[in-house]
Structures are given as structure tokens and as C-alpha cells.
Amino acid sequence: VEGVEVKVWQVPEILSEEVLGKMGAPPKTDVPIISPQELAEADGILFGFPTRFGMMASQMKAFFDATGGLWREQSLAGKPAGVFFSTGTQGGGQETTPLTAVTQLTHHGMVFVPVGYTFGAKMFDMEKVQGGSPYGAGTFAGDGSRWPSEMELEHAFHQGKYFAGIAKKLKGSSA
């Protein structure tokens, strides 16, 4: 989206290398680690995370728990926010994960921007396994070896473009 700059960060890891190894977690990328304060600089935020037992992974929850100072100052109030996610199985949280994540956004006064059914008819395709929901783009990771399908990637791209357009409009209306 013209005029929109995107930055990608990862939250700090809270599990030891030993535990991560036993879980079969992939190696960390060189994506920079974000601090809670950096959230306040953004005009809008799309949070992406893996799911554990139907809700965001503990690393993400720990990161949100560290945003108390931002909450106290209401630094994120009014900022648009959305979510995307991966789950291990079809019953693993494609809807419960974003629903439970909304509580974090709500307490900060953020404006939740779901993707809805704006992706169109592709959301109703039942021929192939695909993640995602009206809450956000999603993928099924299985045991960690499955990569997002072309359809899931298209849904994610659509969500990013849709979200960026709304964030841009909201920023323009407050200027």
C-alpha cells in the first residue's frame, strides 16, 4: 500500500534452548527483537503468533504482560490492531486464538480490525485444508513441517493490504 512502511519484529523468547530443542522448534531468525515501547511508535499493529492449546503462545502473552506501562499511559489507545496465527491442528484454535487475543487489544483501547469475509469466496473453499477465519489469516502448521498453502499466503497478503489501508485512513483522519 503506497505510503505505508512495514516493520517486522519478533518478541523475546522465554523458553530455554534445551526446551526449544525438545519441542523441535525451528531456529530463530535474524528478525530484530521488539521491546514493548516500540509498539507506541507504530500507527497500526498486526500481531502474528503460533497457538498453544487454543490461545496465543506463552511468549506472546509474556510480551503483552510487559506492556503495563503502555497501558497505564494509554499509549496504544485508538491504534488499529489485527491478528494472524498458526495452529497445529484444525481444532487447535483458528477462532479461539484470535478471540482470546482480542482481550489484550481491548484492555489497551486498540481498535480491532478483523479481516472479516473481505477475502471473498476463497474463504469458503472446502476442497483443501486451509487456515484462517474472519478474525485473521491463519495456517495449519501440523507438527511444524507444513508450510502455508498458496491460499493461506493469499489470505495473509490480503489481510496485510486490507489492514494497511485502514491504518492509513485512520492516521489520515487524525492528522
Report a brief summary of the structure.
The chain is built from six helices and five strands. It is of the alpha/beta class and 175 residues long. GO terms for molecular function: FMN binding; NAD(P)H dehydrogenase (quinone) activity.
Could you characterize the architecture of this molecule?
The chain has helices at about 15-25, 35-40, 60-65, 70-75, 95-105, 150-175; strands at about 45-50, 55, 80-85, 110, 140. The chain is globular. It starts with 16 loop residues before the first helix and ends with a helix. The chain is an alpha/beta fold. It has a single domain, classed as Rossmann fold, CATH 3.40.50. Helix content is about 35%, strand content about 15%. Strands 1, 2, 3, 4 and 5 form a 5-stranded mixed β-sheet that branches. Helix 5 links the parallel strand 3 and strand 4. It has 6 helices and 5 strands, in the order H-H-E-E-H-H-E-H-E-E-H. The mean pLDDT is about 90. It catalyses: a quinone + NADPH + H(+) = a quinol + NADP(+); a quinone + NADH + H(+) = a quinol + NAD(+). Its EC number is 1.6.5.2. Its cofactor is FMN.
